[in-house]
Amino acid sequence: MQLNNNRLDTRVSLSRLGLAVAVLAVIGPSLTDRPASARATTEETRAVEAPTVVEVETVPLTSSLFDAARWAEVEVGGVDPGVLSLALRATSAAVERGDAKNPATLTVIDFSRPSTVERMWVYDLATRELLFKELVSHGRGSGRTDATIFSNVPESHQSSLGLYRTAETYIGKHGYSLRLDGLERGVNDRARERAIVMHGAEYVNGAVANAQGYLGRSLGCPAVRPEVTRELIETVKDGGLLFAYYPDPAWLAASAYLN
After folding, report:
1. In the predicted structure, residue 240 carries a pLDDT above the cut 90
2. Which one-letter DSSP state was computed for residue 81?
3. 163 has which bridge partners?
């Protein structure tokens, strides 16, 4: 896929028969079969996971939008199949519970990858189109090149994990910015209080990251390149979902959106 004006324009295409077994294994039971579970309370994570590659498919917006079968065998830009599966599971649960109403986009951030590589993907949920693949910062309190510690605590300057709903835009000290509402109690639900928002930042710069070995860091916000900020925010604002991942066993086991 080619990037054109900071947007991946090539639409995903339906492939031949077959499901990705790895995707089915991670997603597990269908939306209707999944039980509810306790909400997460973890404040930190430390773990390691090696990313792999998967592909996904194009279907109309239907009640089965987030089924594993609907996302099998379509190119998704190199995202880890397990991470995408978890993001889809969380999205399904949020829609089922009414915490998200017809979300147009799903943004996936994989904090298990170093900051020097593109680790944020934005998908159109109706078309399965990959819209953006971008660098994204993590909080300076979460680590240097790699984010390994996460928090929901104000002034921690750490990133938070879990599922967010995108909200309104505003003009702030970083210019055009997007407020985020954390949906996971004890994990990211203080995002608004902490002013965790999506914004552009000059320190999100691939050349600098390659030169110094790490991307510039935020105070916990998912900051992106200034060149793509407005278009990206305009695409995902007002009710889209954002899923921030790291292989933290406690969060994965307790998240109300993953179990």
Report:
1. yes
2. H
3. 243
Q: 3-254 belongs to which CATH class?
A: mainly beta
State the Cα–Cα distance between residues 121 and 129, nearest whole angstrom: 11
Give the closest residue to 219 by CA, choosing from 146, 134, 160, 133: 160
The shares of helix, strand and coil residues in the chain, as percent rounded to the nearest 5, are 20, 20, 55
pLDDT, one tens digit per residue, over 75-129 is 788 999 899 999 999 999 999 999 999 999 999 999 999 999 999 999 999 988 8
> Using one digit for the tens of pLDDT, what is the confidence trace for 139-154?
999 999 999 999 999 9
Question: In this structure, which long-range contacts are made by residues 177-183, counting pairs with CB atoms below 8 Å and at least 24 apart in sequence?
Answer: 177/233, 178/233, 178/236, 178/237, 180/242, 182/152, 183/94, 183/99, 183/257
Per-residue model confidence (pLDDT) at position 128? 87
What contacts 92, CB < 8 A, 6 or more positions away? 31, 34, 66
What is the pLDDT at residue 4? Answer: 39
Alpha-carbon distances, residue 212 vs 59, 138, 184, 217, 237 (angstroms): 42, 16, 34, 12, 32
Domain boundaries, the chain: 3-254
List, in order, residues 6 or more apart from 127 with CB less than 8 Å away.
11, 12, 58
Question: What is the reported pTM?
Answer: 0.77
Q: Are 23 and 239 in contact, with CB atoms under 8 Å apart? A: no
User: DSSP letter string over 181-247?
Assistant: EE-STTTTTTTTTTT-EEEE-TT--HHHHHHHSS---BSS--EE-HHHHHHHHHHHTTT-EEEEE--
What is the pairing mode between strands 241-245 and 223-224? Answer: unpaired
Reading the block at residue 67, the tokens are 């089924």
Alpha-carbon distance of 14 to 57, in angstroms, equals 5
